[in-house]
Design a protein that fits this description.
By secondary structure, this protein is an alpha/beta fold. Helix content is 42%, strand content 21%. The protein folds into two domains: 2-139, NAD(P)-binding Rossmann-like Domain (Rossmann fold), CATH 3.40.50; 142-307, L-2-Hydroxyisocaproate Dehydrogenase, Chain A, domain 2. A hairpin with a 2-residue loop joins β10 and β11. α1 packs across α9 and α3 (89-106) packs parallel to α4. Bound molecules: 1,4-dihydronicotinamide adenine dinucleotide and pyruvic acid.
Amino acid sequence: MKVGIVGAGMVGSAAGFALIQRGHAREIVFIDIDTARARAEAEDIAHAVPFAAPALVRHGDYADLDGADVVILSCGVSQKPGETRLALLERNAAVFRAVVGEVMAVCPGAILLVASNPVDIMGQVTARISGLPPGRVIGSGTILDTARFRWLIGRHLGISPRSVHAYVLGEHGDSEVLAWSNARAGSVALTDFAAQIGAALTADVRGRIDTGVRNAAYTIIEGKGATWYGIGGGLARIVGAIAGDEQAVLSVSTVEAEVLGVPDVALSLPRLVGRDGVSATLMPDLDRDETEGLRASAEILKTLVEKITI
Ligand SMILES: NC(=O)C1=CN([C@@H]2O[C@H](COP(=O)(O)OP(=O)(O)OC[C@H]3O[C@@H](n4cnc5c(N)ncnc54)[C@H](O)[C@@H]3O)[C@@H](O)[C@H]2O)C=CC1
Ligand SMILES: CC(=O)C(=O)O
């Protein structure tokens, strides 16, 4: 796979590093408005190649994206402490108006993988600018929130997060929905599993896990200014699903014709990800509160995306 990364900041460079660790890219090209930054990140990551999988890691300009299979868009601004993701919308939409056309002019066949926030709306903006079909513009969406959810549940139960099957749906942001009602550990319903091992999921435990997932970005940004390792791993996971044509079920964001009565909106649901991007969307069984939460999340995103002019 040839992977372009536009935006060689913390997120883009973490994604590039994760990609070479996992061997998902034979070539990575970093592009940034700050050329010195792109050069430096590419060189630093290239120095890890002898300890990882073979890959050509370099910086370049848009012409160097020729033949890219996937282009990660991690350019623009990130949150300051206390700032919401939605507050970044106008600034990052302006960046994407400049960047997406440049990418499409060189590699119109690439899958675009959007990381910049607010990621659901940036994904929809990217789909509109590029004219690509929805399955070829993927927002990382709640892949990171789902990882945080599984990690916290796994810690509570004392099991591997990989044995937790649970998803965060809707916005990658404050209105996201933690789908507790269909969560499982192994093949066992989560509450049954928890009861069987004597680690009951009380309202207090659930509340702490909800807060831990929903506020993770805010607390990490407070402590170190930004988040990057988690999303770097998540972006590499999505590229790996594309590279391996895995048809993996991942919670990522694409534009959907309709979600619970809300038309033409991008948000995360479990989706099949493989060589052609997203090939199917799966609507899980949700309880009434989760369903209403997902509808509310869709309405928030829809209201905001309608205000953006392309
Ligand atoms: N989807 C997710 O789960 C996550 C998303 N993010 C988002 O990712 C984005 C990037 O975050 P960081 O890497 O921490 O920010 P950063 O500030 O470290 O990097 C952004 C990079 O974009 C570059 N850039 C700005 N305008 C550009 C343009 N017109 N063309 C090319 N490059 C341009 C900057 O020079 C900078 O190097 C932010 O919007 C942030 O909120 C961050 C963490 C998780
Ligand atoms: C910054 C961000 O979107 C996150 O860490 O979830």
